[in-house]
Amino acid sequence: MIQAGDKLPQGTLYEYFESEQGGCSIGPNALDVQALAHGKKLVIFGLPGAFTPTCSAKHVPGYIEHYDALRSKGVDEIWCVSVNDAFVMGAWARDQHTDGKVRMMGDGSAAFTRALGLEQDLSARGMGVRSQRYAMVVEDGVVKALFVEAPGKFEVSAAEAVLQTL
Hints:
Blueprint: E1 12-17, E2 27-32, H1 33-37, E3 41-47, H2 53-65, H3 67-72, E4 77-82, H4 86-96, E5 102-106, H5 111-116, E6 119-121, E7 129-131, E8 134-139, E9 142-148, H6 159-165
Parallel strand pairs: 3-4, 4-5
Antiparallel strand pairs: 1-2, 1-5, 3-8, 6-7, 8-9
């Protein structure tokens, strides 16, 4: 599992764009994690799945609510990473009204999640391989702090908890 002090692994995440912007076309766009993280302070949070109860009712809304406070602590971007495809993440972004606050990143094959060592097998519950619930603070591609939830918990990866550590 990735640890504080480690560099983010090589990886590609997919983001759905509603309009052409910043060299990205409408629809899903493949984005290089290292290039996106270069020179930025990020909060990246991962969760088991789009449109799931805790994720939709608490996790994403908390980061939207605390966006300004996180920015005031020097955070350049907030990323939500889930083992869903970019189309699902785009629909979830519209549903959660994340535009301009939280980048909704799809990791459909769980390749990035596995590279982090933060996958979990929820096949017994019909969900396949998913992400554990976590949050991390990353500066210029290096993990400065990592918060991984115990199974079934939602405490240390909440926006409020991350904000207290910044």
